[in-house]
């Protein structure tokens, strides 16, 4: 099936605005039946309604509970409470709906839109935007003296909006029609005092601006100025790094609305932000932040101990002299009490999480930059690589400096900015396995353990970036044969450096995609391959067992590329026999027609020409095997094709079927040729 193709990341595959943590966990709402809790939403007491919303919010984090609430029309029960007279009820209702959208998935989000959740949500967003500067603080309760209800409600509402717009085109259409952009942009102006709200808005903006040309006209000079101000904010926290990255992604989405004279400088600013994000060593950040957390917890414990001792001493003094003026508890030695200055709980973990999300986002956008922009409804969009593009890459890869490349597909200005920011070098650095010390910290700290998945995700995105870069670049601009061979050694080490063969599906897809693209490029210029025959077969035998069809497609393609190179050499018949048997078995036994078709394609490449190939083909009885398999393959396409495969896939399979007939005819001619 030929050359691999660039694949575009689609944001709709993930539910980033995750569950809100319930504020009232100690009450144990799990025992409350859904019907009773929903009835309490109509109670005249605001406190009862707030408790019911909080209880529902916690329950909705459990996927198995969601159907019971949906059957009782939870969306229409909670929706009106978004405009409740009580601000606390509004916040908890928005949080419950956010959890429902995050934990329920695409179908639930569709159902929420069908049941008109957007009407009260849009009204809430606009009202919050109007009252954002009113500085409505909560009364002093639960120790939270500076709670701003309007901003907290807005944050929940924005996350709910983000989730439904990720999943439902009607929600995006309503966003456009109702002019929600102005309200959302007003929220993001709070980035200097409420970065969490700004990050939520930036995530939502990146979602609603993707493949949404109807929204472009709303981004006037004033709106672009707001985004530019946020994108250029100087703060250095990792949350601000994430904020800038998300806004850079939003501006990339709406680049068609930017005046032509400003486009070059804007894209340079976008790539500079991506470069700065990728330049940060996440492993070192984990080590530093973990140490900072330990120091903070120790300081907090020491402060609490000192405070308790002072309370004991004060009580003793008060008992000795009843006439002494009473000193309020908790106010003793206020000048030495630094508890109010301590960071919020787990801020170090939040900083690392923000960094990893920023790096993953930057890498995903760069992958999309390397692709043409033909939208699709698929989470992954496969697009043809551009063989005709005037793309270029400069310098070369070596152990010290990395691979310096410039693959972007818009203009010389973009390409130059890509290269000047050294982004390819930083991408290559991210393809390495995570820092072992950082991994050990995460493994032995339950709250940090989820970072392992995020570290691996960054590595996989970097490998997909590398795959895309390789597809849109020629050999000379990649730095020549030596640079490619060095890169091949690096990728081989990622596969074979561990004692056990990697089994993670996402990593396998990413690494085999990068290897496939690299081997295609090397084969096009007859550059010697990086893997030994033993490594090649080891990779194929392990990879073909993957449950992911894309991994299996990559595996047989890699084998076909390597086999076609071997067929041009001397004394390679034995290796070609092994490759031929492997590919025949895949073609005949593979459950996926796409993988079977790729295996046939690989066979055509390997045995297309050459004395060694002819010799191997005779010994493995390739021709009779293919003659016997031909009607089976045709029948499978007829029976399994419709309904299981896309139109494009069926066209490719028809092509393989035609090529199979031609290849059999060719092999029959070869067999009749006198030796």
Automatic annotation (TrEMBL):
* Alphabetized InterPro entries for the sequence: ARM-like, ARM-type_fold, SYO1-like, TPR_SYO1
Pfam families, alphabetized? TPR_SYO1 (PF25567)
Q: Where is this region: Disordered?
A: 1-34
Q: Where is the composition biased (Basic residues)?
A: 1-13
Q: Name one GO molecular function term.
A: unfolded protein binding
**Single biological process term from Gene Ontology:** protein import into nucleus
Kindly give the CDD domains that the UniProt entry links to this protein. Syo1_like
Domain SYO1-like TPR repeats, which positions? 413-669
Task: Using the record for this protein, list the coiled-coil segments as residue ranges, or answer none.
Answer: none
- Homology family: Belongs to the nuclear import and ribosome assembly adapter family.
Quote the protein name from its UniProt record: HEAT3 protein
């Amino acid at each position: 099936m030929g050359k691999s193709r660039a694949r575009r990341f689609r944001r709709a595959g993930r539910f980033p605005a995750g569950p809100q943590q319930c504020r009232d966990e100690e009450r144990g709402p799990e025992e409350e039946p859904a019907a009773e809790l929903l009835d309490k939403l109509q109670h005249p007491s605001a406190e009862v309604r707030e408790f019911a919303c909080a209880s529902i919010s916690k329950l909705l984090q459990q996927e198995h509970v969601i159907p019971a609430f949906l059957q009782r029309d939870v969306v229409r029960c909670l929706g009106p409470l978004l405009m409740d007279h009580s601000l606390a009820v509004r916040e908890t209702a928005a949080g419950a709906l956010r959890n429902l959208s995050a934990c329920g998935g695409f179908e639930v989000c569709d159902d929420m839109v069908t049941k008109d959740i957007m009407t009260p949500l849009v009204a809430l967003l606009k009202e919050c935007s109007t009252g954002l500067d009113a500085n409505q603080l909560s009364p002093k309760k639960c120790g939270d003296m500076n709670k701003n209800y309007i901003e907290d409600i807005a944050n929940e509402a924005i996350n709910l909006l983000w989730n439904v717009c990720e999943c439902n085109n009607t929600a995006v259409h309503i966003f456009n029609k109702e002019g929600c952009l102005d309200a959302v942009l007003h929220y993001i102006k709070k980035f200097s005092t409420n970065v969490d709200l700004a990050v939520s808005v930036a995530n939502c903006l990146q979602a609603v601006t993707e493949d949404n040309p109807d929204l472009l006209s709303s981004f006037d000079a004033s709106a672009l100025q707001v985004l530019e101000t946020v994108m250029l904010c100087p703060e250095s926290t990792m949350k601000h790094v994430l904020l800038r990255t998300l806004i850079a992604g939003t501006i990339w989405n709406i680049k068609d609305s930017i005046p032509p004279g400003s486009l070059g400088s804007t894209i340079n600013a976008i790539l500079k932000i991506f470069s700065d994000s990728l330049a940060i060593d996440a492993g070192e950040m984990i080590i530093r932040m973990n140490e900072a957390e330990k120091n903070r917890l120790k300081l907090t414990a020491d402060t609490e101990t000192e405070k308790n001792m002072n309370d004991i001493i004060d009580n003793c003094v008060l008992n000795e002299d009843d006439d002494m003026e009473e000193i309020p508890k908790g106010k003793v030695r206020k000048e030495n009490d630094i508890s109010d200055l301590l960071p919020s709980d787990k801020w170090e973990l939040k900083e690392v999480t923000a960094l990893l999300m920023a790096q993953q986002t930057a890498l995903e956008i760069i992958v999309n930059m390397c692709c043409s922009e033909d939208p699709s409804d698929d989470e992954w969009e496969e697009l043809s690589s551009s063989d005709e593009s005037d793309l270029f890459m400069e310098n070369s890869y070596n152990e010290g400096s990395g691979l310096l490349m410039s693959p972007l597909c818009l203009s010389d200005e973009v390409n130059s900015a890509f290269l000047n920011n050294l982004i390819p070098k930083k991408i290559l650095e991210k393809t390495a396995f995570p820092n072992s010390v950082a991994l050990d910290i995460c493994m032995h700290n339950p709250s940090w353990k989820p970072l392992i998945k995020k570290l691996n995700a960054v590595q996989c995105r970097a490998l997909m970036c590398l795959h895309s870069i390789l597809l849109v670049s020629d050999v000379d601009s990649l730095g020549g044969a030596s640079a490619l061979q060095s890169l091949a050694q690096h990728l081989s080490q990622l596969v074979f450096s561990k004692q056990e063969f990697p089994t993670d599906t996402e990593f396998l897809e990413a690494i085999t995609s990068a290897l496939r693209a690299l081997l295609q490029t090397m084969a096009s210029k007859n550059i010697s391959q990086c893997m030994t025959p033993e490594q090649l077969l080891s990779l194929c035998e392990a990879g073909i067992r993957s449950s992911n069809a894309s991994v299996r497609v990559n595996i047989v393609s890699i084998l076909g590329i390597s086999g076609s190179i071997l067929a041009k050499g001397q004394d390679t018949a034995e290796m070609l026999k092994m490759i031929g048997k492997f590919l025949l078995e895949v073609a005949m036994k593979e459950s996926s027609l796409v993988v079977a078709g790729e295996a046939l394609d690989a066979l055509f490449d390997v045995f297309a020409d050459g004395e060694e190939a002819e010799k191997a083909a005779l010994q493995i009885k390739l021709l009779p095997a293919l003659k016997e398999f031909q009607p089976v393959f045709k029948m499978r396409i007829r029976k399994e094709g419709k309904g299981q495969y896309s139109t494009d896939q069926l066209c490719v399979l028809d092509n393989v079927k035609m090529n199979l007939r031609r290849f059999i005819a060719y092999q029959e001619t070869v067999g009749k040729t006198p030796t």
